[in-house]
Amino acid sequence: MSQSHRVHPDELEWREQSHGERFASRRKQLGKAAGAQRLGCSLFEVPVGRAAFPFHAHLGNEEALYILSGSGEVRHGESRYPVGAGHFVAFPAGVEHAHQVINTGTEVLRYLVVSTMNAPDVMLYPDSDKIGVMGGEAPGGDASKRTLNVFLPLSAEVGYWEGE
After folding, report:
1. Residue 145 forms part of a structural domain
2. Cis ω for the linkage preceding 126 (within 30 of 0)
3. CATH of the domain at 105
4. Model's pTM, two decimal places?
5. CB atoms near residue 3 (< 10 Å)
6. How many domains are there within the chain?
7. Which residues form the Cupin type-2 domain (predicted)?
8. 153, 124 in Cβ contact below 8 A?
């Protein structure tokens, strides 16, 4: 194996994101740095009381997470359950597998997310009644290669023949 396909988290910079009081995280994209093309893997750290992302479902990609340290709560479909170090959770593609991880513990929640990197992907956001469509590059991939990156309220629906 070429060393160009090997990476250590200490070699990568954190990329931080936050929005309001509910969302914040730090991320290192391990899969991308190691040269993976169809498999994503990211290391996340989420502060106490926050989530990395809104409650969402992928229609084109499957995700899984492995908790390294800390504790939290997973929203998965209609269920909510606690998670901590050593738990592995799979999120198959489909609206019934909408998911979110929230740090409900007392320390930073640290976990790995592994995902397929299929493009295009359609994401549904049940809490905010919106839809996202990404083409050219999967979510978590290189945004500069994305040919489509659209988020719309579900109420923006038009008929198939509209405008034809």
Report:
1. no
2. no
3. 2.60.120.10
4. 0.90
5. 6
6. 1
7. 43-114
8. no
